[in-house]
Amino acid sequence: MKYIAPLLLVFAFIFTACSDEGGDVVPRSEWSNVEPDVKTLARKPNGKIRYISIHQSETPFPDTVDAVRRLRGIQNWHQNNPGGPKWGDIAYHYLIGPEAKIYEGRSVKYAASSGTIYLTQAQWEAVALNDKGQTTASKPAGIEKPGASEGHLTISVLGTFHRELPSDETRRVLTKFVAQKLKEHDLSVDDVYFHREIACWTDCPGQALYDWFRGKSREHGARGTGMNWIADELDKLR
Ligand SMILES: [Zn+2]
């Protein structure tokens, strides 16, 4: 009996240590009841992760359905719906729900999908952003087909954030998770982008959320509150 108390302490410590890590990810197998179409996914390997891009799912916010039902709906549209784009799996690598839980999406081995046209790295480095932080060129020369999205790790926030922000807790968990992924892939805060900065025809991830991250100057590299939160979390990990 005398060993039970210390043993409990050890368990308590392990439990606390695990929960303190944060960023626990719900595996894809736990929320999805559909297998990915690997043949379709394998056409676009992701290669080395060079940057993280942040998105919104453009679903209702606040939402009347729970996150798992919402994720299944998005996945069905992206993967199986007869009128949908047939992308082989949900478009994003990770998604974060309104209850601040992170869900695994498609495997990071495969490039993200998008209905928008991504610029190549050389193009988005050359193109200026407008006063909303969007690429100014609507369709730069040389862009023929959608999805130069290789090398991204995409994270989508469930909801639509043109005027509203995700909860404080969701933003805390999101910024911590972004920092963890930056460290994991040996990247810096400057390797974080927002969909509107690197693709044409999109205001993703919503003006309010974008401004919270970038602040008023609305340009790549600018640090508003959200980017500072990521930088602080990254400092803690180093
Ligand atoms: Zn997006």
Number of helices: 9
Mean pLDDT: 87
Report the CATH superfamily.
Peptidoglycan recognition protein-like
Which parts are unreliable, with pLDDT below 50 for 5 consecutive residues or more?
Answer: 12-23
Tally of separate domains = 1
Strand tally: 8
**Radius of gyration, rounded?**
19 Å
Quickly give the structural class.
Answer: alpha/beta
Straight-line distance between termini: 42 Å
Question: What is the helix/strand order?
Answer: HEHHEHEEEHEHEHEHH
Molecular shape: globular
The top level CATH class name: Alpha Beta
**Share of residues in strands:** 5-15%
Task: Look up the CATH topology.
Answer: Lysozyme-like
Which CATH architecture is right? 3-Layer(aba) Sandwich
How many strands, which pairing sense, and closed or not: the largest β-sheet?
A: 6 strands, mixed
Bound molecules: zinc ion
Helix content estimate: 25-40%
**Strand order of the biggest β-sheet:** 1-4-3-6-2-7
Describe what this molecule looks like in 3D.
The strands form two sheets. This protein has a six-stranded mixed sheet with strand order 1-4-3-6-2-7. A two-stranded antiparallel sheet has the order 5-8. The N and C termini lie far apart (42 Å). The protein is α/β, with parallel strands linked by helices and 238 residues long. The chain is globular, with a radius of gyration of 19 Å. The protein has a single domain (22-237), classed as 3-Layer(aba) Sandwich (Lysozyme-like), CATH 3.40.80.10. The longest helix has 18 residues, at 4-21. Helices cover 37% and strands 11% of the residues. Mean pLDDT is 87; it is low at 12-23. The chain has nine helices and eight strands. The protein binds zinc ion (ZN). Residues 55, 195, 202, 204 line the site of zinc ion (ZN).
